[in-house]
């Protein structure tokens, strides 16, 4: 059901937004408002620190756009209050708090690692440097000069009426995303018509973005183990007919892919309103260079909904003894932290999620059907057991 899609249907374009953020960086560098090798710390609020590597090297604007900063894909202090809109509750203060305590795992610039955090941070500091917000900056520098009237972060009522209904990988209706402080990583919404206008401008040496476009492509890093490169904002793929400049996007219920081949003056934008396969990238590359499309996969069965459990309110004094680090037999860790009266649980290599009490020692997640039960005598907690998918996984306390 619903209206048929056309060139004016709105979709979230997710991480294709990173190309726009790179063009903002290039435009501001060309105008002398920033320099590519300026330290990011220069544009943070006074006194807000940025992590440095073991040699004291600072992360620059260039590192953020090339994805060589050493920052992780996501910060570990995202609250995930609404799993269907995971970035919405992430605030400027949370971002600054994370940057103030994060330790880089390697030298700045050492190698490529894709980071939504890094490019979201880039959008944030560029807007600060320009004395405005990200949405206004991208509107002033790119969207208005190119006449992209149907591209925005916040849609007006007429655009909202044309927004495709998003669906998850199980083809269940889900909700659009809101990226707040990390808008530069993936907040834009657009149409096929507007994105082809953008693609044409990206190949036109006389377009309003031509100089910025050239600068984004002038600085490249190799993606180890492939023939691909990363430029400022763009992924670059070698192909018959010349290199393909491209970027994918994915939010909760949308997939997108922009592929531009200047050598043949051809471009494709793929936009879908579901997270199901085949991906928008498969379809876009097939249309542009004839690469094979992955077989259409059967829609997987949706998981059972997370059961609703009754929450019990516990005081910070009751929660404090549970805080600590726990280890399971394979050495995976579970960190339990307490922030502003809310308990969080973080498994190795996963974000921290809030957990909620159903008793003095029993807790549950709202994002997944899983429980934690702590063990010990009195205020001395010695371990915790994870109950999930019919399994019981014990952890022992190590601090």
From TrEMBL:
UniProt entry keywords in alphabetical sequence: Hydrolase
Stretches assigned to the Beta-lactamase-related domain: 4-283
SUPFAM superfamilies reported in the protein's UniProt record: beta-lactamase/transpeptidase-like
A Pfam family matched in the record: Beta-lactamase
Molecular-function GO term, any one: hydrolase activity
UniProt xrefs under InterPro entries: Beta-lactam-related (IPR001466), Beta-lactam/transpept-like (IPR012338), Beta-lactamase-like_AB/R (IPR051478), Peptidase_S12_Pab87-rel_C (IPR021860)
Highest taxon, organism lineage: Bacteria
Positions of the Peptidase S12 Pab87-related C-terminal domain: 309-389
Family: Belongs to the beta-lactamase family.
Record's protein name: Serine hydrolase
Organism: Aurantiacibacter xanthus
């Amino acid at each position: 059901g619903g209206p048929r899609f056309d060139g004016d249907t709105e979709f979230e374009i997710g991480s294709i937004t990173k190309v726009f953020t790179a063009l903002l960086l290039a435009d501001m560098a060309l105008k002398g408002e920033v320099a590519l090798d300026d330290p990011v710390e220069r544009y943070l609020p006074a006194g807000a620190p940025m992590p440095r590597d073991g040699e004291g090297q600072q992360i620059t604007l260039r590192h953020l756009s090339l994805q060589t900063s050493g920052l992780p894909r996501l910060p570990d202090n995202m609250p995930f209050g609404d799993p269907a809109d995971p970035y919405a509750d992430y605030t400027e203060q949370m971002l600054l708090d994370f940057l103030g305590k994060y330790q880089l795992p390697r030298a700045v610039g050492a190698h490529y690692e894709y980071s939504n955090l890094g490019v979201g941070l880039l959008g944030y500091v560029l807007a600060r440097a320009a004395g405005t917000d990200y949405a206004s900056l991208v509107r002033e520098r790119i969207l208005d000069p190119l006449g992209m009237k149907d591209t925005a972060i916040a849609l007006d009522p007429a655009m909202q009426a044309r927004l495709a209904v998003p669906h998850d990988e199980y083809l269940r209706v889900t909700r659009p995303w809101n990226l707040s402080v990390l808008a530069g990583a993936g907040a834009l919404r657009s149409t096929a018509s507007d994105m082809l206008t953008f693609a044409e401008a990206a190949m036109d040496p006389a377009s309003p973005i031509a100089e910025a476009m050239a600068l984004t492509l002038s600085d490249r890093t190799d993606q180890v183990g492939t023939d691909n490169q990363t430029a400022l904002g763009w992924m670059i793929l070698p192909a018959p007919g010349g290199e393909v400049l491209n970027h994918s996007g994915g939010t909760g219920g949308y997939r997108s892919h922009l592929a531009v081949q200047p050598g043949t003056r051809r471009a494709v934008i793929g936009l879908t309103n579901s997270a199901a396969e085949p991906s928008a990238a498969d379809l876009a590359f097939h249309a542009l260079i004839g690469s094979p499309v992955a077989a259409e996969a059967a829609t997987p069965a949706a998981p059972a909904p997370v059961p609703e459990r009754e929450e019990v309110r516990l005081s910070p004094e009751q929660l404090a003894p549970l805080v600590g680090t726990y280890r399971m037999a394979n050495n995976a860790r579970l960190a339990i932290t307490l922030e502003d009266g809310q308990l969080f649980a973080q498994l190795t290599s996963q974000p921290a999620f809030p957990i909620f009490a159903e008793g003095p020692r029993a807790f549950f997640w709202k994002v997944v059907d899983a429980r934690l039960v702590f063990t010990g005598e009195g205020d001395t907690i010695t371990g915790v057991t994870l109950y999930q998918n019919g399994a019981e996984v014990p952890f022992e306390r190590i601090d």
